[in-house]
Structure prediction request, 395 residues.
Amino acid sequence: MGNSTAEADVFAPLVEWLDGQGYECFIHVPGSHRSINGYARLYERYPSHSITIGPYKPDVVGFTPANRVFAIEVKGTENLRKGLGQALSYQRGVDHAYLAADDTVLTRVQDIAVSKGIGTLGVNPQTSSISQEFPSSAEMKDLLYNTRHQLENMLVTTNECSRRLPNYADPLNQLMPIVAIANHDHTTEEAIGDLCEDESYPYRSAYKRMIRLAEYLGMIRLKSGEYQLTEQGLMGEIVLRGYDVETISDLKALKGGGQLWKKHPPIATYLRNRFASNPDFRTLFEVLLRHGNGGISIQELCGTLIDNYPSTFINIVYTDHEDDEGPTLIEQGRGHEIYNNPEYLKRIVHSQFISNTASQFKSLGVLASDSPVIEPKSALNPATDYWYPREFQLK
Prediction:
C-alpha cells in the first residue's frame, strides 16, 4: 500500500470520527492528492485551510468540543518519526497536538509522543474505529493567538480565500453593511443586497463581499440568520455619524473624495485598526512600519514575510496553486528559492495583493500615494516595483 493511499485510508475515517465527536475541522489536502478517493470525499465535505504553524501546515486543525485549538499530523504506516517531528512543531500554535496513524504501527512512537506531550490517534482503516491518547498541555504556545484568531475568522467566513481584499479599491465599502444594519434596519444578506440595488450603490453587485469583509474585520456578526453590529460595528457607526452619514445615500456621497487618511482621518484610523485586529494584516503593517519611509520592493517584502512570517505570506500574498509548490518550498526551508527568483515570484503573487491591497492601503494611509497599484498582474516586476510605507499609528 503506497504512502499517499495509506494516509488517505487513515485520513478519511479520522476526520469523520472527529466530526461525529463534535470537533470543528479544517483540512489541508495538497493539490496532487485531491484526486485520490479518500481525500476527494473529504475535500468536498470539509472546509480547507492554509494556516502555517512554524514551517508546516497541519493536516487537520480546528476546535475541540471544549473550544480548545488542536492540530493533527496524519500518517499512514510510514514516516511516523517525521510526523512526530511535525506534531511537535504544532505545539507552539495550539492547545493540543496529535499524531494520527494506522493503529498497527502507531505503537512504534507512542511512548515518545506521550512523553513529549503529543497525543495519539490510532486508526483502524477496516473498522474506522479510533483509539485516542490525550496529550498533555504544551508549555510553549507563542503562536497560539495567531492560530486561534485565523480559525475564528475562518469559522465566520467558511472560506479561506476571504482574506483577500474584495476587488474594489474604496475601503468605505467595508462600512456599507454597518449603515444598512444600523440605519436602514436591513439585517439579512438579501435585504442588504436589495438596498444596494435600490440606492444604486457603487459595486452593488459585490454586496456579498462587502458583508463578508465587514464580518471578517469584526464589525458585524450573523446570529439566527440576521446580521447585527458588534461593539466595533457600533463604534464604526459613531465615527460615521460624526460625518452625518446615516443612510446609504450619505455614504455614497462620501465616496470619491480622495484618500481617506487625508480627507477623513478618523474613518481611516478606524479602518486601519480593524485591519490590525487580524494577525496577518497586523504583521504586514508592522513589517512596513519597521522598514521606515524608504521604498521596499515587492521582492524584498515577500522575502521578509517568507523568512519570518510564512503564514502571512501564504494567507494574503500567495496565489492558490493546485500544485502547492510555494508552500512546499517554505515547508522544506527553501523559501529563498521563491524570492530569489523574480520570475517565479511574479507568477505566485496574488493579483489582488498588488492591486486591491495597494489601493486600499494608500487610501488608509498605510502606503504613500506614489506606491504603485499594479494591474494587470503581468506588469509586475518584483525587483523594481516598490511600495513606500507611511508613518502611522498602530493600535
Confidence is low (pLDDT under 50) at residues 1-5, 158-162.
